[in-house]
Backbone:
């Protein structure tokens, strides 16, 4: 589904059609191990499911480059043994399919460069392709680009039907300082995300979202749900 000229949603990724670039973000590899340290036992299927999702995407599009828009790994100040192993496995998987991988450093990624350099993968703070500026979203940037793409927020929305409700990951599209802003949900299947209809937003780009459009991802399809204010 195209949500802006030249920019399409595929699952919980963004496809830049003209540039042939796939954007994924907030994978938080190592999240399962962090949960285990807290005494929460979950099956370790995270990396396998991420790769399965990407294989389905690669059947639809053939990117030349993948941009990982922040928070590739989960733990802040160190690299867990399993994180190190799985991040390398993931980079190896990507480099079979594309000629280049670029990592935009997120707030969880101060140590990721030490892993990325093992595969000669670049780690940057932000990147620009023509009129598209990609940044993680935990800090504001100055840019002359027409479109800003962020992660960080993990946007999701609760859909109610009577007493029942379900949470779905979603994309947000709106305006920030007269620029088009697109917020992308987490690509990690374990992270449902934060309900945009309640609570305080994390990203400084998303202080006022009432007039943002909501695009819900569910069962392999993308649905336009109108404005945030119409869902409150």
Residues:
């Amino acid at each position: 589904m195209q949500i802006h000229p030249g920019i399409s949603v595929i699952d919980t990724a963004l496809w830049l059609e003209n540039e042939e670039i796939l954007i994924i973000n907030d994978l938080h590899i190592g999240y399962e191990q962090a949960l285990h340290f807290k005494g929460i036992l979950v099956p370790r299927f995270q990396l396998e499911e991420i790769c399965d999702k990407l294989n389905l995407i690669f059947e639809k599009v053939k990117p030349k480059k993948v941009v990982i828009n922040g928070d590739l790994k989960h733990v802040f100040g160190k690299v867990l043994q399993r994180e190190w192993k799985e991040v390398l496995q993931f980079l190896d998987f990507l480099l079979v399919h594309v000629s280049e991988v670029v990592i935009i450093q997120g707030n969880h990624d101060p140590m990721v460069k030490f892993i990325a350099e093992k595969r000669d993968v670049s780690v940057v703070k932000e990147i620009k392709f023509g009129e598209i500026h990609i940044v993680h979203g935990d800090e504001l940037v100055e840019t002359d680009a027409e479109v800003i793409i962020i992660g960080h927020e993990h946007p999701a929305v609760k859909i109610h039907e009577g007493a029942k409700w379900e949470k779905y990951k979603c994309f947000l599209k709106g305006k920030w300082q007269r620029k088009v802003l697109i917020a992308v949900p987490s690509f990690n299947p374990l992270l449902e995300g934060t309900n945009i209809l309640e609570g305080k937003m994390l990203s400084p780009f998303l202080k006022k979202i009432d007039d943002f459009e909501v695009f819900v991802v569910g069962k392999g399809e993308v649905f336009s749900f109108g404005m945030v204010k119409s869902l409150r």
The chain has a mean pLDDT of 90. The longest strand covers residues 164-176. The longest helix spans residues 81-97. Helices lie at 31-37, 46-60, 81-97, 112-116, 228-231.
